[in-house]
Amino acid sequence: MQRPLSLSSVSPAVLLAACAILAGCNPAPNSGSASSSDSGSADALAMPLTSGAETPVTPAPSASALPAAPPVRIVHVSQPQDEYAYVERATAMSGAFGDAPPDYGYDYGPTRIWAWHGRNNAVRLVEPIDGGNRYYYYQPGQDYPYLVRDADYSYGYDDGQLVVIYDSEGRPLPPAQYDRYSDRAARELARAQAVYAASMSSERQQVRAANWAARRAQFDAANAQWQAEQNQDAEWRAYHDEHQAEQQAYWQGEQDQRQQEAQAFNTWQGQGYQGPPPPAIGQNRGAAIVTTAVVAAAAGAILQHNADQQRMHQQEQQLQQQQQAQAQQQAQAQQQAQFHQQQANAANQQAQFHQQQAQAAQQHGAQEAQFHQQQAAAAQQHADQQAQMHQQQQAQMAQQHANQQAQMHQQQEAAAQQRAAQEAQAHQQQQALAQQHAQQQAQLHQQQQAAVAQQHAAQEAQMHQQQQAAAAQHAAQAAQAHQQAVAQQHAAEQHPAPPPHPMPVHPGQPTPAAPHPAANAAKPAGAHDDKDHHHEHDHG
Q: How many CB atoms lie within 10 A of CB 43?
């Protein structure tokens, strides 16, 4: 918690002198004076953004690639809930800065680092690394951080000592794991001190609006990640609720000013970065920080004045003590004679006192011995009770374990029986399905055989009918041919055929042979011409 400077012990004259110093060093805004930050110089605490194309980003080394550093001392918080103090303070600072662009940038090696300076002189420095950013948080006027956050872990420091380590979500790691990450914490602490020193001495550069627009989402995601974990972690949420009002009051002025800067940037970005960039409202922050430095100087003068006053008061007290010592010496000289007499009397009293001391020592020794015996008995009784309690706990745990084992064994047997029953049922179902399939196959085979036999019988019957019809047709044709032959023979007998006309013979052609008498002879009854016979067969 940040506490204001206490001025309750300062005299009115010194207060008036301090006010005069402040009035001379911090003129009114309308006095006509202009600071170097108004012109965007390299010494300004806040510089306007600049337009132009986005420039490449060169990441800083990872934690393991940073130079080796002296070991960091590990300490622990007295109250477990205080582990959240460091991440809560950094969350409040990031929330106050919000979406406002950086105040300026500067180069540390090949890496461009961005800086935010609060009105209270608190500082946040951010440098790009592979996988995100590394954030450094500083209390007002301190050159070492109270928190460093990278893509994997965050480290909380107190006066350069490692106090707590958080994972990427903001959850504290068990203290037993601190030694494992202490080397990384030492390297990042040394890096934090180096980049802070560079921010005080390096030339400050204006930040390109395109670069801020490109990396702005990374900052929003990092803030949202911590906010989500804060809502889920009951202990962190309880710590936040307890200190929320205090942090909000401390950062309210900063947050209001940064919101104005963010809105001005959004407007300029919406206009395509046309026209001059919005002025850095934080330029007026220089006067506030100078005022803080002047207040610190005035406070030092006030403290010096109080120290001078206290030293003069001590000198007066020493003088009074010296005077009192001289008076006491004179009184001692007068009392010395009486003292010798008193010494003699005291010698007698001392002898009696030694005797009483011896008796008291003997009595005290007896009491000590009795007390030690009682302690030993109580310790033995406590040990017996602890042993009995341990035995009871072991017996209970053993019985509980045996019960769990028996229950697990019963459950396994029941599961095995159930599995065997399911397998038997499945086997029976498979057998029933196989038998049903065999029956269906046999029935289908019988049906196929019956259909084939029936079809064959129908074909045989049809063929027999066709053969009978062909035989009947053949018989009818034979009878008809016989009748025709008989009729022809009868007609030949009644009307003999005329002799054939002689064929003319042309010169040069052979004379045709006379027909053989047997060729025109009548065929006996019942005989058939081969051509007719074949014709009948063709009709058959």
A: 12
pLDDT at 472 over 70: yes
Per DSSP, 278 falls in state P
Given a contact cutoff of 8 angstroms between Cβ atoms, the answer to whether 261 and 277 are in contact is no
For the ranges 174-183, 232-241, 307-316, the lowest mean pLDDT is seen at: 307-316
Task: Read off the amino acid at residue 340.
Answer: H
For the chain, give the longest Cα–Cα distance.
219
Residue type, 156: G
Residue 187: DSSP 8-state: H
Strands 154-158 and 147-149: what pairing? antiparallel
Read off the tokens for 149. 């956050």
Query: pLDDT value at position 267?
Result: 95
Q: Which of 148, 163, 31 is nearest to 85 (CA)?
A: 163
Using the predicted structure, report yes or no on whether residue 103 has a pLDDT greater than 60. yes
pLDDT digits (tens, 9 = 90+) for 173-204: 999 999 999 999 999 999 999 999 999 999 99
**C-alpha gyration radius of the chain:** 61
Q: Write the DSSP assignment of 491-524 as a string of letters.
A: HHHHSPPPPPPPPP--TTSPPPPPPPGGGGSPPP
Asked if residue 464 has pLDDT above 50, the reply is yes
Host H or E run for residue 353: helix 285-494
pLDDT at 41 over 90: no
Per-residue pLDDT, 531: 47
Q: Which DSSP symbol is given to 50? A: B
Query: Cα angle vertex 85, ends 80, 91, to 5°?
Result: 140
DSSP state of 30: G
Cβ(261)–Cβ(96) below 8 Å? no
Q: Describe the crossing of helices 285-494 and 12-25 by its angle, rounded to 10 degrees.
A: 50
Instruction: Give which of 158, 100, 159 is closest to 126, Cα–Cα.
Output: 100
